[in-house]
Write a structure and sequence with these properties.
heterodimer; A: mainly alpha; Helix Hairpins; B: mainly alpha
């Protein structure tokens, strides 16, 4: 049953949202975002299995490339913030708060 | 029947890994349990007969991206005292689960309205390198080029952000 795959994708996506909302560690928040991207990937692949067309596979590859770009930039920002504040708490990183 | 058992095993592994990512205090433990999720997802892609995505998930995600994250976590040499104190973590997790619940039920309702379809593994090179590659370079050529520009931009951005030395002092 293809529905089970989509249910699993929903569960993983919701767990990712929970991780972003409830945790304060930068790395955990970042990996929760990656978890949400992976849940979207699973939905893409499941839908492309339903329709037996491979467009979903191509989109999943695009999402992986975007995730790689995001990982490179986000980790650079984390290193910079850790250099400045030597903390990993997202509550400390409120530089834009006027 | 065998595929159903495999799906159940991979699904349980994926959810357990995701729960571990949320619950572990140290990011290294979280990253390791996230790797379990990624590998289980690769198995699910194989069950959905997406052969290329299965390989890419293992090589790019579980291999490259996660090793980059783990490398950065080790590079920063995080001590337990550096971690944020999260005394109210469980409270927040329960609260956000309650907040997310309606979204999840909404999505479940959408999925239930979809027509049923089987998940038997199909042949005909569905999801193979050649077929996906032909599709990628015929119908998806412009998005592919845009993604390549995005990767170049993120490369330059990462070098500019993390490469400065004198600006930090």
């Amino acid at each position: 049953m293809i529905h089970n795959y989509l249910f699993l994708s929903i569960i993983l996506f919701c767990l990712g949202i929970v991780g972003v909302i409830s945790r304060r560690n930068v790395f955990t928040v970042f990996m929760s975002i990656e978890l949400m991207l992976n849940a979207a990937n699973l939905a893409f692949v499941a839908f492309s299995r339903i329709h037996q067309s491979m467009d979903g596979h191509v989109l999943a590859m695009m999402v992986m490339a975007v995730a790689a770009a995001e990982a490179a930039l986000a980790l650079a920002v984390v290193i910079l913030l850790h250099k400045h504040k030597s903390k990993l708490d997202t509550n400390v990183f409120s530089l834009l708060k006027g | 029947m065998f595929a159903d058992g495999l799906f159940l095993g991979f699904a349980v592994l994926a959810v357990l890994g995701a729960a571990g990512l949320i619950l572990f205090r140290h990011p290294m433990n979280g990253a390791m349990s996230f790797v379990v999720t990624l590998i289980a997802l690769a198995g699910l892609y194989a069950l959905l007969s997406a052969k290329l995505i299965f390989a890419l998930q293992l090589i790019v995600y579980a291999g490259a991206i996660m090793s980059l994250i783990v490398f950065i976590i080790m590079f920063l040499n995080i001590q337990p005292s550096d971690l944020p104190k999260e005394e109210t973590k469980l409270l927040y997790i329960i609260g956000s689960l309650i907040a997310v619940f309606p979204i999840g039920m909404f999505l479940v309702k959408i999925v239930k309205s979809l027509p049923k379809s089987s998940t038997e593994i199909i042949g005909n090179n569905f999801g193979g390198v050649k077929q996906v590659g032909l599709l990628l370079f015929k119908d998806w050529l412009v998005p592919f080029e845009i993604v390549s520009i995005l990767l170049l931009v993120s490369l330059i951005g990462a070098v500019i952000l993390a490469g400065k030395r004198e600006a930090v002092k």
